[in-house]
Amino acid sequence: MIKTEELQINIGPQHPSTHGVFRMLVTVDGETITDLKPVFGYLHRNHEQIAEVNTYLQNMPYTDRLDYFNSMANNHAYAIAVEKLAGIEVPERAEYIRVLMVELTRVLNHAGALGFLINDMGAWQTQLAFGMREREKILDLFESASGARLMCNYFRFGGVVRDLPDDFMPRLKDLLVAMPAFIDELERLLRENEILLQRSEGIGILPRDLAIAYSVTGPVLRASGVAYDVRKAEPYSVYDRFDFDVPVGSVGDVYDRILVRIEEMRQSKRIIEQIIEQLPDAQGGHINPKARQNVRPPVGDVYARVESPKGELGFYLVSDGSTKPYRYKVRAPSFINLTPLGDMCRGYKVADVVVILGSIDIVMGEVDR
Amino acid sequence: MHDVVNQLINTTFGWGWPGWLISLISYLLIATLLFLIAPFQMLFLTYFERRAIARMQDRVGPNRVGPEGIFQPMADGVKMFTKEDIVPDSADKWIHLIAPCIVVAPTMFMFAVVPWGPGMVPVDLNIGLLFFFAISSVSAIGLMMAGWASNNKFALIGAMRAVAQMVSYEIPAVLSLLAIVLITGSLSIVDLINYQGGLFISTMDVASVPDFGLGWFIFTPVGFLAFIAFFIAALAEGERTPFDIPEADSEIVAGYMTEYSGMKFGLFYLAQYVLNFLLCAMTAIIFFGGWQGPGVGWLYSLAITPANPEGGWIFNVLSGALGVFYFLAKTYIFFFVMVWVRGAYARLRIDQLMDFGWKFLIPLTLVNIFGATIWVGLTRWGAAEGLAFVEGWSPIMRWAIAFVVTLALNLGTYLYLARIYAESQSERARMDDEVLERLTNVA
Q1: Conformation bin of residue B114: beta by default, left when phi > 0, alpha when psi is -120 to 50
Q2: Which residue from B241, B253, B431 is facing A15, i.e. has the nearest CB?
Q3: Which residue in chain A has the smallest CA separation from B247?
């Protein structure tokens, strides 16, 4: 037996596939990982402290910058938190528009996440380009509705900032017609490719118990076999009116995470189709006329959560009765899903680390805040 | 080249120069030509790859510098030269400097034995194939030097991977060629190409076949299997996707090249693309007849050769041009396949790569060598070798029987090995019990 030495490698903070400034302190024995420590904080930008010196509405654009891939979902969570705190009603039509935007966000997030994941496996961006092509179409819709592509800042307390433009619905229907073909294409790409199967099956297993113990949420938790989805467990907005399934994996490896995401895209499409049916009958306008934009909630605290594409996104707000939150705390799914990374990676190869990290689907803007 | 120069100087001009001077001049001409060709090939290959991949990704690719971006590689080259050359403080400076040279030099040597057209081979070594692969493995030393001297952990891991991969994949590459060498009975690349005249059937196996330059090895079962094994091994040797593990950008940044910048980095790049070109060229030569193709043989028979000093020089030019065209066309098709694979597939992991090489490719190529011996026995042996019963069969009959037997052998082996390999892979797919146990213990 040759005596070998363990090597400590810093993967990150400057590294092509850490999805931002994230550092993994990896101990390797040859190519096998013996230990991994996630180190974060490089992108800390005082988000929560800044939020405490802004008024409630001024914070809305800041939430866009949390998970910059899904600004609509972040807006939604924050809007629900403030509405709960201040007791603001939301018109039915606005609720539908919100859910529509959030479900489109889920599709674009998963399309991008799967593309990046395959990129991490070493494919030279072709699959990423396919995912991005689909994402662009949705971003065009967002632009027509909110005026911005990434940082939409579209939600307001008591509704959304403006109603859907006239050409929005026809364009959305066109998009939905093309979407199944895209999802099937992506699934074929993943399920029928021997190399992708070899790289994803049995890699980065997160057992059910461990996932629950780490309070992991989102597709990562569901891939481990726990059917937990905030949209079903604690329906908010108008989610109780839609018929959709929660896909669940069995093993909890990278492959299951891929399959869960693909299925979630299909379910989002189902929800969007139901919205298109129900939206014309929805009561009220796009924004509650009584809702004052400069809210002054009564003293108290509130926790509101939504199922963001990456997991359970929660906002904890404490009000002292002024126009600014006394305390503002984000429960970021990327951050909490990242904590079991060491346990998921131990025993696998160096090449698997980036794949496992990619399968968790993190955005550093949300992890470090 | 020697004949042409001799004809030009001594016959046309009548200067009566001695033979050694003629040889010296012709070798200098060839060497200069090859040293110019290699970098220009590399420049064009990078441009070709970027454009082709861009098409696959719904993009246009480089199109700003010159018409359709054709001068983009030149712009990149100028950029490489003007970049600062950074040597890490803790690096071993001399070895850091020498490593890229050691990686580039062998790829240039390898051009020495590559035939471009009929009679257009720089040196017709009788051990050409051996020379080619022996020289190509020298660059592994350069890679290891680069990784070690950089004093960077990513570079070290990349170099380790590169050496492990090159050493393991040379074996199936050479074994698959061994089958071909058994059939031709020669290690000379020129003999190898000459063997591939004919039409579907080589003229060397069945003399009565018309020579259209299409008796390629790919049309035989032995050659086909060897081609598959060789091309996969070539992907690994040239560090192409899905075997670009040594420089896996998403894992270990740039592997052994991590600490290189400027033209030293450019040299690694040059070496890699030239090596890829040569591997594609070798695939074309060994299995697809190199410059062989309809018309080349006929044109060459009218040209000035040692056997036919009365020929016309215009036929040298014509047969050369047509031969080079066939050769380059085949080579670029293979390079396109490499690009195509890169645009479509993800990367294997290092242990999966090793599994595939040792458990699948090597047994396959070993059986293929056995198939080659059967082929030789059935098409060429007779009573002298103890195979008296084949004497009465006609050559075409013997060829057909050899074809069927080797096809059955290779197909059966392939299916059997593929099943065993798939089983061994699916066992590991849903992961070791050990890992699962550890994870449940943590929970």
Answers
A1: beta
A2: B253
A3: A122
Give residue limits of the domains in chain B.
1-81, 83-358
**CB of B431 less than 8 A from some CB of A:** yes
CB-based contacts of A131: which residues, under 8 Å, 6+ apart? A111, A112, A114, A115, A116, A186
Query: Could you tell me the two tokens for B371?
Result: 């198939």
Q: Do B346 and A123 touch (CB under 8 A)?
A: yes
Q: Which residues of A touch B430 (CB under 8 A)?
A: 201-202, 251
| A253 interfacial to chain B (CB closer than 8 Å) | yes
CB–CB of B241 and A124 under 8 A?
A: yes
pTM of the predicted model, to two decimals?
0.85
Each residue's pLDDT tens digit, B115-153: 888 877 887 888 888 888 888 888 888 888 888 888 888
Encode pLDDT of B270-301 as tens digits. Answer: 888 988 999 999 999 988 888 888 877 777 77
Q: Are A218 and A264 in contact (CB under 8 A)?
A: no
Is it the case that residue B361 has pLDDT exceeding 80? Answer: yes
Q: Do B157 and A213 touch (CB under 8 A)?
A: no
Cross-sheet strand order for the sheet of A311-319: A300-308, A311-319, A325-331
Q: CB of A202 within 8 Å of any CB in chain B?
A: yes
Higher pLDDT: B249 or B372? It is B372
Average pLDDT, chain B: 82
Q: At what angle do helices A168-191 and A254-278 cross, to 10 degrees?
A: 160
